[in-house]
Write a structure and sequence with these properties.
The protein is α+β, with helices and mostly antiparallel strands. The protein has 16 helices and 25 strands. Helix 9 runs antiparallel to helix 10. Belongs to the TMEM8 family. One of its GO terms (cellular component) is plasma membrane.
Length: about 700
């Protein structure tokens, strides 16, 4: 079995011309109870009305249900169906008698009713006697009488009444199918005419309207007229910034403030200052025909009409920027002392904010300028593409009566309308504006520093000041000076390789944190990646060489192990300097070498190695400091306390070297680094050869 599904898109929806009146009919069935249409509004439409009138409604006087006249129809039909003898069925099913012409017209309309009447008649005849003989004359008379009774009853139940009510529901929505949140015309149930007024509709694309019968009324059929009434904005081909409608000799006192008239000026032009992303300024088009863009300065705002202009946001060039609209009222130009003025502005996309919308601006972006707040700024991040409209209107108030009055002098407004990256190309003092590419789209975004957040890095709820950032940098850099005691002690005890590694670590850790700590207060001596690599290499190498020098191994083996370890650490640091293995593997391997050599010496000398004094005075404090630093680094360090905890880590690890570093090695070159740890056999041998040398060596 093959099932074919036919998909009907919105392009197949019937179009309703707005210029004509449409006569529509809805019936109370599944397919004709609800209809969908579409229509296109003129591009200068400020408002329009949807009207429904001349309704003609057919309503059921009683709830009609087709039922047999006798409750035994079902049983009769069952008896006939269950009969297995064709001859008997033929005897109990006489031919239908002929009726006159008028009776045939009614029967055609109520075919089901005549069938039910026939079944009822058969049943009544059969119930008289099971053995009764069939009489055609009696059957015909009975059938005609029953049919006439049933038909008369059905005609009475289906009698219709015509009223002037309009029980319909109309739902309108622009560019999409209507839903529960769309504009609805639903109060037509007890009215002969009803209408819905829609302010500032979308003029981009189609508007869809769904019309259905109101289920709260018992309606079988309704016919009505659907019409539209549009109000458009008058268009001008030029935009004269000074005064458009009133010359200097116009008597302003004879004009009354109103918003029912709309004047649409020519669209604004685009001016690109330089070839870079998001650097567009909208300007006035000069009426001379030459490319002479005029800034939006000293725009005269009328009070008796709504002035309206438009501009275009292109896709995808303008989508990743920020649309800035700044307006300021020119207070110096308004010299009337006995009046105050208020300027209303409304910005909407794909809709003309004329008429009453310029002041309410419920679905747009409203701006109000007056003597108290003469300036206002609106930022629209990542504006949607399309045509945007800006409307202007003013209203003056008398200082004496505090009531609206005709403006003796029209106010002037300066407007800045630009598209820039981020917030006017900047992100405040705690961020930087960067451009990002995603597919074919380029968009700008602020990268905030020092805990500042927000679209323009202006939310300082968790932000830090420049002073706090300077303190953090000084803590992390100066805490590395605690390596100086370890360096001096290593030089004093002739551990020159170790002293060099400690100096290397202190130097690069200091300048790494000077470059990495803050994006506001920083100093990068070389590239950041070089400083980061050197810092991690020095830190891990310090662990490696310190634990090797604590081991009881020959000097040549120690020198080879130090060189090999530094090379492997360099490779590991370049591979993943923030990984756990690059720290754990060198430290673990050095610990195995150190404790292995100590255990070997304990078994060989049959006594504690190194001495108990070293365990108590040197090893125990050094291990406590090192473990404290590791705990702080691994478990307590967070982004908020980084400058304090990491500074303590620097101090703990550098001071632990002072305690862990062994005594000065002997001159014999036998790898003995702890005091009083010389083997007894070597002591006897040295004593036999040269007692003075043995005393000096000890």
């Amino acid at each position: 079995m093959v099932i074919v599904v036919e998909a009907t898109g919105l392009d197949n929806v019937q179009v309703l011309p707005l210029e004509t009146t449409h006569r529509l009919t809805l019936t109370n069935d599944l397919l004709k109870k609800r209809v969908l249409y579409r229509y296109a509004l003129p591009t200068s439409t400020v408002e329009y009305k949807v009207k429904i009138n001349n309704c003609s409604t057919k309503m059921l006087s009683e709830k009609s249900v087709l039922k047999p006249t006798s409750p035994t129809v079902n049983s009769t039909a069952s008896a006939i169906d269950q009969s297995s003898e064709p001859s008997k069925l033929a005897q109990t099913s006489p031919p239908v008698p002929k009726a006159n012409t008028s009776e045939h017209l009614v029967a055609n309309d109520f075919e089901n009713s005549s069938n039910y009447s026939y079944s009822s008649t058969v049943q009544s005849n059969e119930t008289d006697s099971d053995n009764a003989r069939y009489n055609p004359d009696n059957e015909t008379k009975s059938l005609q009488s029953s049919s006439f009774t049933q038909k008369s009853s059905m005609i009475k139940n289906l009698a219709t009444s015509t009223t002037d009510m309009c029980p319909v529901i109309a739902v309108m929505r622009s560019s999409a199918l209507p839903n529960v949140q769309s504009a609805t015309l639903s109060d037509c149930g007890n009215q002969t005419e009803c209408e819905k007024r829609l302010l500032s509709p979308s003029v981009d694309g189609w508007t869809y309207i769904t019309i259905a019968i109101d289920d709260s009324y018992n309606v079988s059929e309704i016919s009505f007229d659907l019409s539209f009434e549009t109000k458009e904005c008058e268009s001008l081909k030029i935009f004269i910034p000074r005064t458009i409608f009133h010359p200097a000799d116009t008597n302003r006192t004879s004009l009354r403030p109103a918003q029912d008239k709309c004047i649409r000026m020519t669209s604004l032009g685009r001016f690109v200052w330089e070839e870079r992303t998001f650097n567009i300024t909208y300007v006035l088009n000069d009426n001379t025909g030459f490319p002479n863009p005029l800034p939006l300065r000293n725009l005269v705002i009328e009070d008796h009409v709504v002035m309206l202009t438009s501009f275009t946001v292109q896709s995808p060039a303008d989508l990743g920027g920020t649309l800035l609209l700044h307006a300021s009222l020119n207070l110096q130009a308004f010299t009337i002392k006995n009046q105050t003025v208020t300027v209303y502005m409304c910005v909407m996309r794909n809709a003309l904010p004329g008429g009453e919308t310029v002041r309410s601006c419920e679905t747009g972006i409203a701006m109000v300028l007056n003597f108290t707040a003469p300036e206002d700024t609106v930022y629209i991040p990542y504006p949607e593409p399309g045509t945007w409209f800006i409307s202007f209107n003013s209203e003056c108030y008398s200082n004496d009566t505090k009531l609206p009055t005709t403006c003796s002098m029209l106010p002037m407004v300066d407007v800045d309308l630009v598209i820039s990256g981020c917030v006017e190309g900047q992100c405040g003092d705690y961020g930087v504006c960067q451009d990002y590419i995603s597919g074919v789209h380029v968009f700008s975004s602020c990268k905030c520093y020092a805990g500042w957040r927000g679209y323009g890095c202006t939310d300082g709820t968790e932000g830090r000041t420049k002073g706090e950032e300077l303190v953090a940098m000084l803590l992390l850099t100066l805490s590395n000076l605690f390596f100086l005691p370890s360096i001096v002690l290593a030089l004093y005890r002739r551990y020159f390789v170790e002293a060099l590694v400690y100096t290397f670590t202190m130097f690069f850790s200091t300048f790494y944190h000077a470059c990495d700590t803050s994006d506001i207060v920083y100093y990068c001596m070389v590239k950041y990646d070089i400083l980061s690599f050197a810092d991690f290499l020095g830190s891990i190498s310090s662990f490696w060489v310190t634990m090797l020098v604590m081991s009881k191994i020959p000097p040549r083996v120690r020198s080879f192990a130090q060189t090999l370890g530094v090379l492997l650490v360099a490779v590991g640091t370049e591979y993943d300097r923030h990984g756990l293995l690059v720290f754990a593997v060198p430290s673990g391997l050095a610990a195995v070498v150190m404790f292995g050599s100590w255990i070997f010496q304990c078994r060989r000398q049959r006594k504690l190695y190194p001495t108990r004094r070293y365990y108590l005075i040197h090893l125990l404090p050094g291990v406590i400091l090192a473990l404290t630093g590791l705990v702080l680094f691994a478990f307590l360090e967070t982004q908020n306390n980084y400058k304090y905890v990491h500074s303590c880590w620097h101090m703990c690890m550098s001071l632990s070297i002072v305690f862990l570093l062994p005594q000065r090695p002997t001159d014999k070159g036998n790898g003995s680094v702890f005091e009083n740890d010389t083997d007894s056999d070597e002591l006897i041998l040295v004593t036999d050869e040269n007692p003075r040398e043995s005393i000096n060596g000890s």
